[in-house]
Amino acid sequence: MSFSAEVKDELSRQCSTARHCQIAEIAAIISMCGRVLISETGKYTLKIHTENLSVARKYFTLLKKAYNIDTEISVRRSTSMTMYSIIIKRDEDSVKVLKASKLIDEFGEICENMSVADNLIIQKECCKRAFIRGAFLVTGSISAPEKFYHFEIVCSTESKAVQLKNIILCFQIDAKIVARKKHFVVYVKESEGIVDILNVMEAHVSLMEFENIRILKDMRNSVNRKVNCETANLNKTVSAAVKQIEDIEYIKNTVGLSVLSENLEELAILRLENTDSSLKELGERLSVPVGKSGVNHRLRKISQIADDLRKK
Predict the structure, then answer these.
(1) Claim to verify: residue 193 and residue 83 sit in the same structural domain
(2) Which residues contact 299 (CB under 8 A, 6 or more apart)?
(3) Are 165 and 79 in the same domain?
């Protein structure tokens, strides 16, 4: 099971005891994947279609708890997917749910292409949490934190995306919108933001798993950075030592080390005899010990002498 599926499975098993929160979550589910059929006689039938069993189970449970109404469930299987449909056939029940969810007005007109027309049902913070939870269950996804950090909810219209983004922003989470083909995607990319939105949706088990993976990932990245830094420094030190020895050997084979001043000759001989020693160690072995910067200064002089000889 993917991490996204684990989060949805956890959320599908939660059910708020407050009826106003149940209604807010129902409204989100209907807004994201619901359809209203109106017969010739003006009777309403309310349907939701989903490939996700978790969504179907949650929607059925919410309807039963919030309204205690009967629903019809159908399952259609094909070679590529399974589609679950939950249908409210009775006109009175359909109207009751739609009105409570603010998805139709007092004249029976569908509001804004099935989007929540106003914020009456999501004024409370707990209802905002429920609405985000319902929206994520239907069209949301979250990447496996081992790979990269990405949370998104796909909306069919820009107005729905803007509304959802504004609800998420109420929790100080930096959500953004991007157009993708014919849809609008509300997304969060920073790991801290994803932790916060998991907390908002009350997916606490998944949040702990996400945090554990994030901590291990950060530790691994930190170790890798340190190893890479140390490796780079070691390579730099080795390359410098090789260059120093090449310069000294060149002077020795062309004009002899005796042309060097006494302190440079001593250091040159010491470097040839101790090819793996650090500058600090070389400085400590001199007859008159000097620091790392002093050794480096003398080696630069030797290098300059070798370069001058090469030019000649």
Answers:
(1) yes
(2) 244, 267, 271, 279
(3) yes
Q: Are residues 188 and 271 in the same domain?
A: no
Whole-angstrom CA distances from 138 to 122, 153, 178 are 18, 8, 18
Q: State mean pLDDT over 249-267.
A: 86
Q: What total number of domains does the chain contain? A: 2
Reported as type and span, the H/E element at residue 111 is none
Residue 148: name the closest of 190, 116, 98, 183 by CA: 190
Q: Evaluate if residue 113 carries a pLDDT over 70.
A: no
How far is it, in rounded angstroms, from Cα 141 to Cα 153? 7
Segment 223-246, tens digit of pLDDT: 778 888 878 777 777 778 888 888
Q: What is the pTM of this model?
A: 0.71
User: Contact 260/305 with Cβ under 8 angstroms?
Assistant: yes
Structural domain of residue 160, as residue ranges? Answer: 3-202
CA-CA distance, 29 to 120, in Å (whole number)? Answer: 17
CA atoms within 13 A on the CB side of 109: 5
Asked whether residue 207 is domain-assigned, the answer is no
Q: Is the pLDDT of residue 114 over 60?
A: no
